[in-house]
């Protein structure tokens, strides 16, 4: 029934339902498929490598019986010897006899050939090579073992494609090769076909062996199949199954006949049992070698096919990209980890370097402090020796006073060196202060030397030598502390007096004094204080420290002090001309840190003045001195 196709001109579906048709499967290919599926027909009946007919080109599988009948049989008597040698045993018996012919078909073909080529018919004698060839063909094909060995080599192309096959030609080149080699798959073994027919297999030794499961239709159905070769759209799991099958390919191919021919050993013609055994060993050795070569050929075919298969190439490329992506991700993780470790390592190194720098700086400071302490101790010892000698010399005219302390100069020197060796810096300073201090030995000093303190020095030396507590030195410390307390009280009283507010006249006088006595003069602030006191005539005169402090207060302020009098305002204007803002003070401090004191003094102050806009070098120097003086006053 032919289905009617109705074309639709638009996308609108017809209102009436379309007529449905039933399609049934048919054709020779489908019937052959169903036959193989139901195990009613062997693979050999439909495989392309059995479709070669006589001369190796004509196909008998697709020909009708009428066409096959039209073909004339070979006349072996008229064929040349060269062409006769090219015919296989099947063609010798009958021109169109297929390789998968049954035993009955072979017997019928042999009977027909005998009727035609028997010496009784031809009169060519028993040694006729044509008849001997017919007889040899029947002997071989009628024996299942010999026929199996013969079928292993007849009409078979063992060649495999070379490397470098284009992807577009891969399926056309390798497909037929795998198809013809499938002829030797284990499930296509002719012995199985003999077992299905209920026949017997004869072993090489001549013994007959009944095949299990034999008996025609009662033979077990084989479930072994070869996965399809497929095409470019075949799923990868099917492709891997196909190559898995061929990697573990089991071949039934038998090289016994070929090995016998190559070794030129005919076991039937052996003279003895030992010779026959020797021939069998030689044939078996050659047989194993051929079997290894056959498996090597199959393995090489599979390797070349897998190397050229575009489906496997795509899979490998995909796997390579995935592997590269994983490696790239792994590399990035490792780089991030390494970067993190590097940052942490650098941080630790910086911390270690900073700690080492601090430690080195602390060590340098400690060393410097120690050197300073040593220097101070050395100077304290020199001052103490000088004061003691000066006091001793001052006491010499008064022999009674000198004799009460030391008997001679050598004894005095011993005591002085003992004290210098045993006493600390502060203890030596206490004794030096008791003797009159540094002012007593300076050239322009006006402090008197204290001769009476020699007795205390002597007593301290005796106490030091005996190792007892130095009471004399304690007494000196107590007196020094008392003097310090008295000085503090005097300073507090002075500060209380200085806290009195400055009058307008005093401010005006201060402004005039600062202007009159510019920086750089000798005893400038003494002269300014005297000027202020003489001009104002206050009952409590102002000291130079008070004048300096007031000047710094005015200079540190951003605006001049308030005054209604014109003269006072004029004087404050002169003082305010040198006033510094907080920002300028910060700049000055920053420049002082930037340019250290070990530079040349003139160059240093020039550089500092450039860093403070609106101020000269002289202004910067005066401001620095004012700040330093204020710090000293506070301490």
From TrEMBL:
User: Does the keyword section mention Cytoplasm?
Assistant: no
Keyword annotations for this protein, in alphabetical order, are:
Chromatin regulator
Q: Where in the cell is it found?
A: Cytoplasm, Cytosol
Q: Which residues are in the J domain?
A: 88-154
Please give the chief subcellular localization of this protein.
Answer: cytoplasm
List the residue ranges of the region (Disordered): 194-232, 310-348
Query: Which residues are in the HTH myb-type domain?
Result: 572-632
Q: Where does the record place the SANT domain?
A: 575-632
Q: Which Pfam families match?
A: DnaJ, Myb_DNA-binding, Myb_DNA-binding_2, ZUO1-like_ZHD
Which intervals hold domain Myb-like?
494-555, 572-628
Coiled-coil positions are none
Q: Output the superkingdom of the source species.
A: Eukaryota
Q: Which GO terms describe its biological process?
A: chromatin organization
* GO CC annotation terms, alphabetical: cytosol
Q: Which PANTHER family match?
A: DNAJ HOMOLOG SUBFAMILY C MEMBER 2 (PTHR43999:SF1)
What this protein is called in its record is: DnaJ homolog subfamily C member 2
Q: Which organism is it from?
A: Cyclotella atomus
